């Protein structure tokens, strides 16, 4: 990899190429999902990290064989949509209910000694609620159109009532940014999900689940922001150029 890529390749590009780089960016506190459109230089300026040193570490990862790595970029978009729904959307739905109960219990039992639990609970309830509505919009509005484009072989399709995928995608990306910030606040309040010395087993399990929830959210947002959405925009342009995107509303 040539060094000029420091000023050209985005953080999201690196993670899309090999998700193992996500752990490296996380180690340096660099947001690879919501702010994945920054170059290495731009990201390093905020963290006072040497871009050359970071790129060398990235190259060490990329040059190491990883048969376990999944090349999501090579997947058909309809398959990627199904994967996101069945893996990450279902995860949020399943884990949110459990965390609601655990956080409520922690507030009642430990809130007196650890008042930060009330703010953590409030943030999670708000975040999970927004995510539920967010995922519904994707599943009912944006994703079906992406799948139609992916499954249409040389035939024309109707223009959706949202006009172009740029519109719902911009909304989804804004909501991703908001939720990314919300869960960063939860991480701060939990001292990066470190339970206090007097924590009971429920306390420990809850913090471990919150950590896993945020990590899954990072992967979820990465797949959409850095792979699915750019590919959907490119595919839509092909339909527009070929004249296969009609102007009759759905």
Descriptive account of the structure:
The N and C termini lie far apart (45 Å). The mean pLDDT is 87. It is globular, with a radius of gyration of 20 Å. The chain is built from 8 helices and 2 strands; from the N terminus they run ααααααβααβ. Helix 1 (11-17) crosses helix 8, helix 5 (77-110) packs antiparallel against helix 8 (201-242) and helix 7 (166-189) packs antiparallel against helix 8 (201-242). With 250 residues, the protein is mainly α. Helices cover 68% and strands 2% of the residues. The chain has helices at 11-17, 21-27, 40-47, 51-62, 77-110, 116-151, 166-189, 201-242, and strands at residues 157-158, 245-246. Strands 1-2 form a two-stranded parallel ribbon.
């Amino acid at each position: 990899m040539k060094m000029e890529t420091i000023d050209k390749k985005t953080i999201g590009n690196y993670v899309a190429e090999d998700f193992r780089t996500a752990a490296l960016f996380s180690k340096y506190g660099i947001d690879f999902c919501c702010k994945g459109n920054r170059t290495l230089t731009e990201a390093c300026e905020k963290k006072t990290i040497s871009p050359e040193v970071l790129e060398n570490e990235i190259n060490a990862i990329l040059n190491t064989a990883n048969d376990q790595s999944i090349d999501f970029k090579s997947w058909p978009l309809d398959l990627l949509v199904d994967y996101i729904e069945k893996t990450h959307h279902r995860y949020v739905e399943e884990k949110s209910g459990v965390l609601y109960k655990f956080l409520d219990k922690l507030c009642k039992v430990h809130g007196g000694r650890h008042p930060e639990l009330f703010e953590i609970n409030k943030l999670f309830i708000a975040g999970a609620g927004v995510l539920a509505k967010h995922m519904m919009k994707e599943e009912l509005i944006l994703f079906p159109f992406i799948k139609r484009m992916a499954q249409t072989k040389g035939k024309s399709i109707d223009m959706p009532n949202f006009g172009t995928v740029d519109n719902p995608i911009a909304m989804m990306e804004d909501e991703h940014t908001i939720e990314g910030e919300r869960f960063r606040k939860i991480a701060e309040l939990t001292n990066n999900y470190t339970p206090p010395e007097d924590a009971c087993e429920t306390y420990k399990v809850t913090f471990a689940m919150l950590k896993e929830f945020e990590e899954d959210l990072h992967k979820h947002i990465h797949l959409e922001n850095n792979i699915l959405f750019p590919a959907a925009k490119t595919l839509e342009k092909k339909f527009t150029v070929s004249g296969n995107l009609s102007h009759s509303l759905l």
